[in-house]
Amino acid sequence: MDTVSIVGVGMTPFGKFADRSLRDLGTAAIAEALTDAGVAEGDIDLVVHANAAGGLLTGQEMTRGQVVVSGTALAGTPLVNVENACASSSTALHLAAAAILAGMYRTVLVVGNEKMSGRGTRAVLDALATAADVDRIEEFNRELTGRTDGAESFFMEVYAQETRDYMARSGATAADFASIAAKNSGHAALNPHAQYRTRRTPDEVLASRLIADPLTMLMCSPVADGAAALVLRATDDTGSPDAVRVRASVVRTGIPGGGGQTLERRTAEAAYEQAGFGPEELDVVELHDAASPNELILYEELGLCPPGDGPKLARSGATALGGDLPVNTSGGLVSKGHPVGATGAAQLVELVTQLRGRAGARQVSGARRALAENAGGYSHPEAAACAVTILSVD
């Protein structure tokens, strides 16, 4: 796929904003993306609005996108609401690109938007747990924790189990995961949109409160509010030197009981085939580190290193700024923040910024090809959804 391009991007800072609603966040990101693209609201043919938990956390169960744009000139524009757990806004981009390729629309606006704060942490964790089969939650909790009365964080228990399994087969240590978290905190310190901009040391990460063994608090993504937006057009119509091509957009669904190869590997391999090049040609990567060990595990699943070499790659320094393949230059989900419906779009904003050469102190020199991996939900033992998007400026 090389006939669709991203011509404009915008995003809010990520954090907890008591005075900003879902509408406020979305319209701010939209305005910035339209300005960046040099298009007016009236030029947009379709809006694809992604949100994961607005019904449970804001009370707006339906028509969230329509409410967000209701006070703007986008009111009345065809609009589709998308929910696909944490992969919602990457899925929205996938649908937007497909609509353009089908010839149905010329210019499409993608919005990823989430308001998570305000109802308390317990409400957020309970909402996130509904990204698994709610009829099987007691069964899943029993497998993960030995009890049925729930966990402090269902998904952190899932990630902790995946991490323990990975440690057993790879030799990775808690110190490796702490180093990943510390690396990404350094990247986030350079990102004005990041929720947390304090550099952490591996020792600080290890010393923070234990959430689900071996995950400590500073290895876990936080509750966050935020929005990100993208303007897409057919590549032949862009007329913009800042256009970044969508070389691949693949969305796959998890298989209960597992599907042989992992969901992430299946999705990535399909994306590489679509793009016409493999991981060895990537310059920068954003991946879904909802917990820090996920990054190291995904090095292998995305083909960034051979199976079993994730710890070796992490220890080499190659995935830090200045290394051969910087990963999560935005700070990743743990430090940049993880407003779930906005995360995929925010990953793409970071990569577009990198490929345009405008990332400032976190710029990857000569970046021309980039990959984003965004996953969400739980289908036991896989994620429920995974999206891999590959971008380029060549």
TrEMBL record:
GO biological process: lipid transport
Every Thiolase N-terminal domain range: 4-234
EC number: 2.3.1.176
Top-level taxon of origin: Bacteria
Record lineage: Bacteria, Bacillati, Actinomycetota, Actinomycetes, Mycobacteriales
Alphabetized PROSITE patterns for the sequence: THIOLASE_2
Keyword DNA repair: no
Record GO terms (molecular function): acyltransferase activity, transferring groups other than amino-acyl groups; lipid binding
Residue ranges occupied by any Thiolase C-terminal domain in the UniProt entry: 265-382
InterPro entries named in the record: Thiolase, Thiolase-like, Thiolase_C_2, Thiolase_CS, Thiolase_N
Key words, A-Z: Lipid transport, Lipid-binding, Transferase, Transport
Species for this entry: Mycobacterium sherrisii
Name this polypeptide is given: propanoyl-CoA C-acyltransferase
